[in-house]
Design brief:
The protein has 10 helices and 17 strands. The protein is α+β, with helices and mostly antiparallel strands. Helix 1 runs antiparallel to helix 3.
Length: 409
């Protein structure tokens, strides 16, 4: 099947995850794509194809040589972001992009413009898959799925390329941070792997944030406002004061590269009680621990002012920087970079200002850097992906598998 046709077929399946759900997967509709993928892999003749009760799909592409070669894996996630609807996606291809504005939706006057997204100009002359401006596209990470399966199909059609045993895995709920939580690393049985979930062509990511969540529960004292003097403690006002204690210049909007931040992601308050939720991020483990300590000190300061027990802070680690694990197996990065060059791609090693399933999988015993999938502007109506970028991602996977067989292990 054509790579683009395969990808467009996946975008037709609504797989939006739900961060407020307590089920696995967080939305039952993700299993619709899982079932489709299971059948596709079976029809291709792959072995050990299975889908578990939580919607995780695994399969094996058997080796075509007796040479001792490490089993490697390729992983992508099926869900799309809760940030915007993935239902009724209407993709179209803008052929031979001319570098100008792209009218996504005439009726709603939604325009994808290089004035706002200058990276578009890097893909002038290419064929861009865009939305109609009312949904996200789903290249994150259905492009990755299509590229992995198309790479396997390419190798099936080119048996002259010798390869070892290859495992593929597709999981739900990556967008809500739970994709790796139930991924069966032991069953996957790989020496190392790659998530195919990055953005621009050439991106090779093996550093990510250390991540934590801080939830502040604030208890106020509700009193009739006519008799409140000296008695009322307004939890909403205390929430505003708590927020003001965090540095203004250490937010996502004021930092880049390796700089960490505090990011308020939730605020709910009344007079009686309020909740403030932050996420805390830093690449450096020592600075990360200091940031968590600062969050606790903010709560302590509020309690010193308003009384013990006024603010309860719960700080919970979410994931860690995979570089700690990848540094132990540098050949995993070298192999991917060499493969990119064979595919005509210049490797670009960039730190992830976020996290991937690969970060958690690396700490579960599966070293797992992240490869580019080609998509841009994830999680919104302006998402797009060049066909040529997808093709390069697919061929990078092919070259990784082929190179792995050529090397002496």
């Amino acid at each position: 099947m054509d790579l683009v046709k395969r990808f467009l077929g996946y975008t037709a399946v609504d797989t939006q995850s739900d961060e407020n759900s307590e089920t696995v997967p967080s939305t039952a509709k993700q299993k619709n794509l899982a079932v489709l993928l299971k059948k596709e892999l079976e029809d291709m003749g792959l072995e050990e194809v299975c889908m578990d009760d939580m919607g995780y799909v695994y399969a094996t592409f058997p080796a075509n040589t007796d040479k001792k070669i490490p089993t490697i894996g390729f992983i992508s996630h099926m869900d799309t972001s809760p940030s915007m609807s993935g239902k009724g996606v209407k993709p179209r291809i803008v052929g031979n992009y001319d570098g100008g504005d792209i009218l996504l939706n005439k009726e709603l006057d939604i325009v994808l413009s290089p004035k706002l997204f200058p990276e578009l100009l890097n893909h002038k002359g290419e064929d861009l898959i865009v939305t109609d401006g009312t949904t996200l596209l789903g290249a994150d990470d259905k492009a990755g799925i299509a590229e992995i399966i198309s790479a396997v199909e390419y190798l099936q059609n080119h048996p002259e390329i010798k390869h070892g045993r290859v495992r593929v895995g597709f999981n739900p709920d990556e967008e809500i941070g739970m994709g790796a939580a139930h991924f069966d690393v032991e069953k996957f049985g790989c020496e190392f792997g790659y998530t195919v979930d990055g953005g621009e062509v050439g991106e090779m990511e093996f550093e990510n944030f250390n991540a934590a969540k801080a939830v502040f529960k604030i208890q106020g004292l509700e009193v009739h406002p006519g008799y409140a003097k000296g008695k009322m403690k307004n939890a909403s006002l205390m929430a505003a004061e708590l927020i003001s204690m965090f540095p203004d210049d250490e937010t996502p909007g004021t930092t880049s590269g390796y700089e960490g931040f505090y990011h308020i992601v939730g605020l709910d308050g009344e007079v009686d009680n309020a909740t403030v939720t932050y996420i805390i991020r830093d690449h450096d483990r020592t600075k990360f621990e200091a940031r968590k300590d600062f969050a606790r000190e903010v709560a302590a300061g509020m309690n010193a002012k308003y009384g013990e027990g006024t603010v309860q802070a719960v700080v919970t680690d979410q994931y860690y920087n995979m570089k700690e694990q990848i540094d132990k197996v540098p050949y995993v990065v070298d192999l991917a970079c060499d493969a990119m060059k064979l595919a005509g791609v210049s490797p670009v090693k960039v730190p992830i200002r976020g996290g991937t399933d690969g970060a958690q999988l690396s700490f579960k015993g599966l070293p797992c850097p992240n490869l580019f999938a080609g998509g841009m502007n994830f999680h919104g109506r302006y998402e797009w992906v060049p066909v040529q970028s997808m093709e390069k991602a697919m061929m990078t996977i092919v070259r990784i598998i082929g190179l792995c067989a050529e090397r002496n292990w």
